[in-house]
Amino acid sequence: MRILITNDDGVYSPGIAALANVAATFGDVRIVAPDVEQSSASHAITATRPIRLKKVVIGNFDAYRVNGTPADCVALGTHTWGNVDLVLSGINLGPNLGNAVWHSGTLAAAKQAALLRMRGIAFSTPISEIKEPNFARLEPYIRKVLELLLKDKTMCLVNVNLPEKPKGIRWTRLAVGQYDGKVVADKDPMGRAIFWFTVKPLNDEVEGTDRWAVANRWVSVTPLRLDLTAEKDLARALSYPEVPAMTPATRRKTTARARKKVQNRRLGPE
User: Fold this and answer.
1) In a domain, 124, yes or no
2) Section 219-235 average pLDDT
């Protein structure tokens, strides 16, 4: 098995080395990650300039740094290596729970893998202000999660969050009841207005959600999908008696296409 590993904290983050150590027991590992931190980059791709791939030393692994986003790294890594079976992203320094998945660069790398018809799994863990995570304690749970997910080949996109001291593993859903983003107003040294985008604590720990699981020291494993269609809303919309109104320009184009089809049928063979 060929396993590509990336993250959004940068290629030299300790979390990526810990993830590579576990992944190496499952197959051949290559690290392709951003050269600088790309936290909250979401699924941005670099389309306005070329990106470069440079070899670096990360333990005993083939590793490369990229002057791009996590999604760039997955696209470039799979292009240059070829025949990648699995993409792992993380271990992110900080959780990616609930609505945070919308702007997570860690999860975006796993999504890029799914878009390229590979399997993508994102790993994250909380951090404190005084110490970094104990990756040695987390590695056995990462291994168990990979063993669990690799047996089920139907899950192409999974988000995993590891508490500091896990006591087990739970299947979960996203906690999307509240959003934790907020804007904080401030001033620069010259007295001019500036703003910080940061997060606020949440307490929407509904049982069965990823936020609840991590708060109760469970490893949260959340299967996701690429299709964002609101199926219930679509079904209701399709039952409406009215059809969406056409603008005059759209009506003219539709009428012209219909006339052309009729003319083509007349000119066709008898």
Assistant:
1) yes
2) 95
